[in-house]
Known about the structure:
disordered C terminus, 3-stranded antiparallel β-sheet, 36% helix
Amino acid sequence: MKRIQMVDLQSQYNQIKSEIDNSVIDVMGNATFINGPSVKSFQKNLEAYLNVKNVIPCANGTDALQIAMMALDLQPGDEVITTDFTFASTVEVIALLKLTPVLVDIEADTYNIDPQKIKKVINSKTKAIVPVHLFGQPANMSDIMKIADDNQLFVIEDNAQALGSEYKFKHGKSLKTGGIGHIGTTSFFPSKNLGCYGDGGAIFTNDYDLAHKLRGIVNHGMYQRYHHDVVGVNSRLDSIQASILDIKLKHLDEYNLSRRKSAISYVEKLKSNKNIILPNFSIKQMEHVFHQFTIRILNNKRDELANYLSDNQIPFGIYYPIPLHTQKAYQNSKYVDEDFPNTNLLSKQVISLPMHSELEEDQISFICEKINGFLNILDPKNGQKHVQKPVQNRLKSNHFHLRVHPAVPMVLQGGTEVPK
Length: 420
């Protein structure tokens, strides 16, 4: 068995090495490093893949969210509703633009924003909703879009973790996530389902007027050189990254299928364990693409299990250990802890297991054997329970965080990530 990694980018690269190398060499040869042909090619191919009318590439997923909000002409003090259970970049850009983030609780079975909680916080200041398709599973877009339509609100989809997923509406229509709301955004961070070899992002919309404004904002507010028509930023996807993404886009469905197969294998091996709640991907209208395979550990054993996995050289991630409403930067007196029961609970239970398109069956078997053994399920070979030796809790040590769960955005040997 080869070494288990949270994300195995090197093995993925080796599978498509000649394609990637040739595409990068082409950019080097024609020296079109900014806004070159590869950017335009990727843009068009991603538009076709997502079946959206406009894709606007940009520098990263956080920029994509910020630029989307800038294009909607939201004003300081306007309220934007989003989930309490996500990475900080989703709410970070709301605060940076002097808007007011309004955090709400999630559904315990999907980890996604609860539409019923959205309804309760809408008022005259509410202008937009930002659903996050967390861990690769679509949020309940039928209900969210109806709420938005009924209240004349914008919807900005944070699709950083679910590119390639589909949402099936009750009337039978299927749409790729990111192309359902007024604007969709994504990140091409290397470990994403579609990741580049650096930073990158994109914005999607079917509204041509919005697309025109977005294209100006990403380019210093310019449509004609040195004519600044709107306030903008400098946020571009460079040509080398676009050339890499254009190659990997051809393989995205294959990568997502591989992730789903690995998820099914995890489920088969862990489903009898009463100490675990597995991801719910039986909801027919929500096609899960498993950016993460995140399980819930019951009976307060999550942190002990994390130590045990570390001892056995099994990487993992804890996404997310601290609810946003309790983070120092986003604390607000209007938040009452009792309003976030699911987020509070899941932050103490969730752990994400290795998940990538190169994960092998023997690796999954080894991981599940260790988890099941630690959590004391019956050994089918001899009917005896595994007895776990005491494990010292090292979750607060610097060594632990650097080795398994870094607190800064980096990849360690193709390993863990900060998700935006």
